[in-house]
TrEMBL record:
<dbReference type="InterPro" id="IPR029039">
    <property type="entry name" value="Flavoprotein-like_sf"/>
</dbReference>
<dbReference type="Pfam" id="PF12641">
    <property type="entry name" value="Flavodoxin_3"/>
</dbReference>
<dbReference type="GO" id="GO:0010181">
    <property type="term" value="F:FMN binding"/>
</dbReference>
<dbReference type="GO" id="GO:0009055">
    <property type="term" value="F:electron transfer activity"/>
</dbReference>
<protein>
    <submittedName>
        <fullName>Flavodoxin/nitric oxide synthase</fullName>
    </submittedName>
</protein>
<dbReference type="InterPro" id="IPR054633">
    <property type="entry name" value="BilS"/>
</dbReference>
<dbReference type="InterPro" id="IPR001226">
    <property type="entry name" value="Flavodoxin_CS"/>
</dbReference>
<dbReference type="InterPro" id="IPR008254">
    <property type="entry name" value="Flavodoxin/NO_synth"/>
</dbReference>
<feature type="domain" description="Flavodoxin-like">
    <location>
        <begin position="5"/>
        <end position="161"/>
    </location>
</feature>
Amino acid sequence: MKYAVVYSSRTGNTALLAQALKKALPESDCLYFGSPASDTAAEAAERADLIFTGFWTDKGDCAGDISGFLEKLRNKNIFLFGTAGFGGEPAYFDRIVQRVRQHTDASDTVVGSYMCQGKMPLSVRQRYESQLAQNPERTQQLLDNFDAAQSHPDEQDAEKLVRLAAGYIRQLQ
């Protein structure tokens, strides 16, 4: 089964997951690994049996480069994977995936998805700290989430993605 791994990563979190896929899946079956901005990505996606599409979360959705890539696909099997700074609630991740799915065509099949928390830049923590006096309780929750996110994605997050991806490949073969 031929596949492509197309991803966008602002802080390196999604790239870490993409690298885990690359390491675990058969290299000989990989048609493309990299950014959606390349013409090669579109060409490989056209030939791939399965497209692993990775994204970072931007205001509850994927960034524009991934949404644009997904919107061009037709009659494809897609596995979505992504990272979000805010985490801890599967329902939140589900809402993100639902928004990202809206960028796919009705002819596409989203065969699966995986989301995990990802670390955020220090500037985010500094912004939260500056808001602490205005809304201490809410801001403390944001700071706690920031601190919890700093170890993600971790090895367990990557292993979960690889297990899910391998399972979907077996189903499609």
